[in-house]
Structure formats: C-alpha cells, structure tokens
Amino acid sequence: MEKLSNPKKTIEVIQKYQFGFQKKFGQNFLIDDHVLTKIMDGANVTKDDFVLEIGPGIGTMTQYLAERARQVLAVEIDKNLLPILAETLAPYDNVEILNDDILKVDINAIAQKYNQGKPIKVVANLPYYITTPIIMGLFESHVPIDNITVMVQKEVADRMQVGPGTKDYGALSLAVQYYAKPCIIANVPPNCFIPRPNVGSAVIRLTRHLDPPVVVKDEALLFKIIRASFNQRRKTLQNGLNNSAELSFTKEQIVDAIESIGLKANIRGEALTLEEFAKLSDVLYQWIQK
Ligand code: SAM
Predict the structure, then answer these.
(1) 18: left (phi over 0), alpha (psi -120 to 50) or beta
(2) What is the pLDDT of residues 54-101, one digit of tens each?
(3) Could you tell me if the CB of 30 is within 6 A of ligand 1?
(4) Quick check: 136 and 219 in contact, CB under 8 A?
(5) What is the atom index within ligand 1 of the atom nearest the CA of 105?
(6) Mind listing the pLDDT tens digit for each residue in 237-257?
(7) Ligand 1: residue whose CA is nearest its atom 17
(8) DSSP string of 128-180?
(9) 26 C-alpha vs ligand 1 centroid, how far in Å?
(10) From ligand 1's centre to the CA of 201, what distance in Å?
C-alpha cells in the first residue's frame, strides 16, 4: 500500500471517508516523507522499542513507527478516525489504537503493561493546543521515559531549549531542562501538513536525564518558585515570589534568601539559572517546615 506521507494518498483517504478536520483537536496531518524519516532517526526508534504515539490522526506517522519499532500504542481522541486507522494500519500487526484523551490515560500503567516498566519512547506530531500539559504530565507523573520526540510549534520548541537572559526563557524552559536534555531535530514549514497550520513547527527531542541536573529538598516548592518568578515577567523576583498565591513567605524571608545565594534583591526571575532557582528553593524550604 502507498504510504500516507504521499499527499495524494492522504487526500484520497480523507475523501473516501469524507473526513472533516476538527480544529479543536489540532488536526494537521503530516505529508512529508523526509520529515517523518528525520523524526524516526531523531527518536532513534529501533526494533527493541515500545513507542507511545499521541494523536495518530489517519496513521501517517504510525506507519513509520510500526516499521521501525517492536510495538506501538497510539492514543487518539477523535472516534471518527477509528475506521480510517483500521484501514491504513491493517498491514501492521504490532500496532494498537486506544480511543481516549491522552490527558486522562494512565501512562505509567501503559509502560508497565507494554514494556514491563522499562523506559519507553514517546513520538508524536502533537496537537499544539495541549503541548505543555502533555509534556509536563509525562515528566511530572514520573513515567519511565527514554526520550520524547515531538513536533511542536516552533516558538514552543525555542522556549524549551533556551537559557537565562533570552526573551523566550521561562517556566517551560526550566521545567523541561530539569527533566531532560532538549535538542531541536528539524524546523518544519507549514507546507509539510494538510491542512497547513498558521505557525511554523519544529521537531524537538527531550532525552530524559538519568539523574536530575540539580537536587532539591522539595521538588514541588522549586516549581512553585519558578512559576511565581515568571507570573509577572516585568516584575522583580522578590515581587513575583511575594505576590504568589501558591507561596506564603514574608518579604524579609524572600530578600534574605535571594541575598544569601549571592544575588541582588532587585534581580528579575529571568536572570536566574536552574542551579540558582534550586539554591533559592532550598534556602526558602526552612520556612515551610513544620
Ligand atoms: N500523527 C498525525 C500526523 O502526524 O499526521 C496527526 C497529528 S495531529 C497534529 C494531532 C492529532 O492528535 C489529531 O489526530 C487529533 O485528533 C489528536 N488529538 C487531539 N487531542 C487529543 C487528545 N487529548 N488525546 C489524544 N489525541 C488527541
């Protein structure tokens, strides 16, 4: 069977089933063999791997994954795609489709069932409207992961990999870099999709750290501090922490903590490295102990 990466085949399938694209599900299907091959190579998918695919659409990327991986589970929310997937994936006996919302699925249970709890690969052309909850959900629920290789909005890929002092640096950069090493694999223009998205895209690989780059006393506190620091971008770090509904330190505790790690009290959050946020978190931790 002709692959769906051939635009003619994708159009033929869509017309045959009179499939109506749903904007609310972020449906932009890939039609570029070169990009798909780059994603497979970037994720380093091999016959040893169990791969979780998020949002298979009509099965374009799933066909590539099925050829390279040992086993693939693809989670798709749109039930209108199920009959199409049954046809386009019929030649492969190592693919299963789960009709569900990825944000409601127990991925730890999936890793246990399909890969005996060993690190899995996650590969996807993500629905852009839920990029951050999907990625943070995977990291925060401590699913055993080797790497996550995903197509995201170009701007979001940039935010994930930059460091302090750049305009894109923020809570997402710090959260991603706490858990993984980001690497942009490819920039992908709108004409590689049907329909064309109105933003540029990029493929990014997030390779899970074996050990976190910083060790803190309280991971949840670290992330509360990071979120508070970027809530009000133009404000100083001390004001961000002081105004956060999630934190209840006094102004004096905050200023003392910032100065105790060698920073000026009027510094902005966007100037701090992950290591500095970790130090700050550990100093402030003394005030939340009972
Ligand atoms: N993988 C296909 C491709 O590359 O051509 C389709 C990618 S498309 C950008 C995103 C897919 O995610 C769509 O098929 C959409 O229906 C699905 N999707 C959207 N929200 C979802 C959710 N919450 N859970 C699972 N799948 C979802």
Answers:
(1) left
(2) 999 999 999 999 999 999 999 999 999 999 999 999 999 999 999 999
(3) yes
(4) no
(5) 24
(6) 999 999 999 999 999 999 999
(7) 55
(8) GGGHHHHHHHHHHTT--EEEEEEEEEHHHHHHHH--TTSTT-SHHHHHHHHHE
(9) 6
(10) 15
